[in-house]
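hey so u asked for the seq, here:
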Amino acid sequence: MLLIRTLRVQTCHVVTNIISRTSTCRASNRAPNRTFTSATLKLETIAVHAGHAPDAGTAAVTTPIHLSTTFQRDADGSYPHGYIYSRAANPNRSALEESLRALEGGSAAAAFASGSAATMSVFQALEPGDHVVAPLQAYYGTAKLLTEVFQRWRLDATFADMTDPSVVRSAMRPSTKLVWVETPSNPLLSITDIAGVAQIAHDGGARCACDNTWATPVSQRPLELGADLVMHATTKYLGGHSDTLGGAIVTREEDEFFARIRLIQTTGGAVPSPFECWLVLRGIRTLPHRMRAHSENALAVAEFLQQHDSVEAVHYPGLAAHPAHDIAAAQMRLFGGMCSFQVEGGRESALAVAAKVRLFIRATSLGGAESLIEHRASVEGPETTTPDNLLRLSIGLEHPDDLIDDLAQALLT
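ran it, structure tokens below
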């Protein structure tokens, strides 16, 4: 037993040392004069160039895919190229993390195998007995992590209405270490005042993390508004083609808390493959232009639905009638490509509309070129708080007139 315990301690030290050496080598291995910031360049330029440089070995302009899991040492045992083992670091992951860091204006980024893995890493970096304030309206998987996984590890959570700062303030405790924000929220597109909630978190000695998946850094800049961490499901808009799975955490400061996230990423091994990293990095190059088209199309669809007699309510922050339109306009550059609406007549009427669409695809997820429609309550299951008559739309890159025509015929009774 003593031998096993000693080996475990030694292994932990070895892994920690490998991660430390890899991070140092990786940072020194970046191409000179290739660091991009929003202080000097526009976001479109950063999206195209950050994380990209001609390959040192072949001069290839497009980033090669490095599938190797292991890397050669020099005769003296060192790793002069900065890579040891692909779980600890990989050239494609390094490139993606640099791109994500630059896009959000952070100090560092960690890429994960999924958005849920990225979220989980933040919760895992907390201590047993810590308290989290999380949104009532959010991706249901975030609540499942807190209630079904981390509650057993003595991580406590309070779910609060993030649209009301007084409710958030009341939910704070001396043990609160994290306030989790999702804005716009899934699936009702509620808006949280990021700057206001971040200030409440900081006043209480907590960090503020923001799920920026739906808005993307093109539309919303949480770190500039006071958030400490930003989470992305890179599967969605950043990848942009419904063909890759991934997640990421971007940090304002490369501090001890982010070091824990990095340790969880590399030691736990919840890392994306080189090809997944390459796909997301490729998708990011067109992100600003895609987001403008997604947002323009979504606004056109929302305006159509708002006038339709068979629609009970439309949820889109770009509409002047949205209850938090002014807050959204103040903190968002674009209103995004997600929209939801409630159909008159209840659940069966909503399902009937979803069944009749021709262009929209009945599928979960979002952020791809194709438009998707989903009866969200069916996906979330019996514990859902989503209205039974709500349909969630991921508005794609088709012509908005065609999307409107499709919804118009589906809404005919």
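Confidence is low (pLDDT under 50) at residues 1-33. DSSP finds 15 helices and twelve strands in the chain.
lmk if thats what u needed
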